[in-house]
């Protein structure tokens, strides 16, 4: 009996994939693979579309990792193959069970239409092979099925495989006998540990004071995660993985992440300082250990002068003067001009900068220790003897007015300022940009700058922070010489901290019309809390769950689930006064109303009890990222600035992780119910009114008020004056 049929190659390959139990494929719909993708979909194999070739392969790799099944990506040919190369190489190095099926140029053909060149021409086999990927090419209809099986087998053993399907081979007919599903040989299991290996490891650990455990692909495949974590907890060893170990200890408090070129500075430093490294299922080759040595010890010192007056202390009618004053400090000081100061700093290999935030102004010096004696006089001049040249003030004003002109054309800047304006009003300092408005900037004079400087930049209103490879005995005489005689002029200005908090109002929606805007920039929220809040730690954890990380609810919903935005987030801007809470995203214009519904749903949902696993992930995310804030002398000095400005306790940093980890689900729910109230939020959307207003009105989410750009910024600056 003849049980055969004639079918196209693309159809029998799709049937084989289905028979293997593969039910999900990730990719982009390309003319090179379209019939293949449609056939898979018709067989019940879900085709999940991606926005980019790298995304498709990364999604397949993530699927393989989370399900322990084969991840399959379907990619076009030519430029599409090149576009996905980065993710393909990364997945290969991590030992992922991924099969990438690429369209390829027709076999035996130099052109595709007989008229001109193939504009997708690309030697995929050569490029993928050169990148170290295992490649298979279905060179004929007769060999296509076996080639697929070979590629699947290779990928199933933990090595990304690339299958090239020439466009003409896909369309060829092939005779098929029977309907037997193909079978794959099971992957071999790694051998168990030898007794003498365990004894040797135990002896090393017993003597070690700074042990590190490194796990690789072998440990990952063997399911050794729990055992190695238990070993680390018993011995105090830190945990790391090779790239192929897939960061298998993610979430564990001892985890330092991925070793090698993927690792952060803290991981590299700890690896370099380890006196015992135990490696499980990994090879320490040049790929594993690249960039593995600690950052060389460079004798650097950071000196920060912190003035306890910032833009929050701007006098009424002079909003922006603190920011302008800070910028003017380096525009001329002592006997030097702005260019002479810059040249002198560059010659010393140093960096000298000034800035002003809501609560403080700073002069920061970063310099090699051997040059500190030469750099401090420059810093002292800038801080104590600025000259405020008229010509430099004029230049600074033009620069700031130009920035405002640019901001008036940027929907993100428009929505940010509009949100502050509608929440706080134009008379509250938090309702105007740090740099001020066009009206205040145009009116500033040298006398205004000098008046603010003389009342704010006082030794009784400032402190110096020093961090680096230098002792107090060495640095204090230098500081005494350069700052010991600083007497200041006049009396320090009283701090302007009696800012009236706006009354909470029912939700209102504000649309700032920006015709033709490709996105709607959404900002929603209200007045949050001051930095002094006793709820700081519960709020930090709660906001991490809501919108403070990539895996937060807002981002996973609006970006990953719906694809409305490239990113959504939320934050509490804590200052000496109660700064704002806001949730934000740039939304695809035609999805604005849908996105608002999702925003409101997540803001309401956070007030329910957070599941234990989600709470644990959020706390680990905060704890594991915390050391990154202390990597450089500049980072440490910035942290100490917070202690000074916000009057934090001496043990704040030492107990930070402990206090984060002690936050409970009840704490998170309590602060969410107290501070997240979307029924009384201001919702600001800067976008194309004609395109978004009908959908927003249909939501019936609150009254709508239309604003113009002039309502937000005031009249446009006139640079011709």
What is the secondary structure topology, with strand pairs?
Elements: E1 4-8, H1 9-19, E2 24-27, H2 34-42, E3 46-49, H3 53-67, E4 71-75, H4 79-83, H5 85-93, E5 98-104, H6 124-130, E6 134-137, H7 144-156, E7 161-166, H8 167-171, E8 173-177, H9 195-207, E9 211-215, H10 217-222, H11 225-235, E10 238-241, E11 255-258, H12 265-273, E12 276-280, H13 286-289, E13 300-307, H14 321-328, E14 332-333, E15 336-337, H15 338-347, E16 351-356, E17 361-368, H16 372-384, H17 390-407, H18 411-424, H19 438-443, H20 446-456, E18 462-468, H21 472-483, E19 508-513, E20 519-527, H22 536-546, H23 553-561, E21 565-572, E22 580-588, H24 592-605, H25 612-625, H26 633-646, H27 656-661, H28 665-675, E23 682-687, H29 689-699, E24 704-707, H30 709-713
Parallel strand pairs: 2-3, 2-4, 4-5, 5-7, 6-7, 9-10, 9-12, 10-11, 19-23, 19-24
Antiparallel strand pairs: 1-8, 13-17, 13-18, 14-15, 16-17, 20-22, 20-23, 21-22
Features:
721 residues, Rossmann fold, Cytochrome Bc1 Complex, Chain A, domain 1, 4 domains, 6-stranded parallel sheet, 42% helix
